[in-house]
Amino acid sequence: MKTAIISGASRGIGKAIASALAKQGYAIIINYLNSEDQAELLCAKIRSSGAVAQTYKADMSSPDEIKAMTDYVKECYGTIDLIVANAAIGSYGLLIDHSDSNIAQVISTDLIGVITLCREGAKAMLSQKSGNIITISSMWGEVGGSCESVYSAAKGGVIAFSKALAKELAPNGIRVNCVSPGFIDTDINANLSDADKAALVSEIPLGRAGTPEDVADAVVWLSDDKSSYITGQVISVNGGLII
């Protein structure tokens, strides 16, 4: 049985990804930090369907905790076949109002945490001579978002990192791709008013906000052998909002 670690999997996009991959037969490691109850509920639901799942608490801004998690998965399951680097925190506001600690927190979680998780996963995959890494960026990483400059910087870094890592790992049979969601209806957008959300949706050619399941479908495809000749790509799931 193949194993998949999904960071930030207790809710939103990560939850949808974990549920979708469980249906594909993966043993799911549901990483979380603060939402223990939600993680355990998701784990129980996946297990009730006959799939294999467990939770693991680890802070994606802590290299030591990331390494402990990947070591644990390798010890318990023997392999790490898929990494989905999804965990992220939002940051909205003018750059001049961002504190040093806030900037550091966003970069350490949304960019350095992704790099560290992929590094530790790659160590296992290189010894296996196989594996698949999927990072989750954002449309703001592609074009930049006003009042989301720090978040955009981190997510833009994820895109560049993913492309570079794909070149590095391809000779060893390891694929790396990036999924870049647009406006997805999750609680990360809780800072937006109903009017702001409606204004965003009005600009989307497909006429609706995305769902976590839309993103999960892209991840499932990239995790499957049907996409075996795809690496180093950014799959934009945004309804045509940016093209």
- Under the CATH scheme, the architecture is 3-Layer(aba) Sandwich
Principal-axes shape call = globular
* Low-pLDDT segments, ≥5 res: none
- Indicate the proportion of strand residues: 15-25%
Q: Walk across the major sheet and give the strand order.
A: 3-2-1-4-5-6-7
Q: And the CATH topology?
A: Rossmann fold
| CATH class identity | Alpha Beta
How many strand elements?
Answer: 7
Order of helices and strands: EHEHEHEHEHHEHHE
Number of domains: 1
Question: Average pLDDT across residues?
Answer: 96
Q: Helix tally? A: 8
Determine the CATH superfamily.
Answer: NAD(P)-binding Rossmann-like Domain
| Structural class based on helices, strands and sheet pairing | alpha/beta
Overall helicity: 40-55%
Biggest beta sheet summary: 7 strands, parallel
Rg, Cα atoms, Å: 17 Å
Separation of the first and last Cα atoms: 38 Å
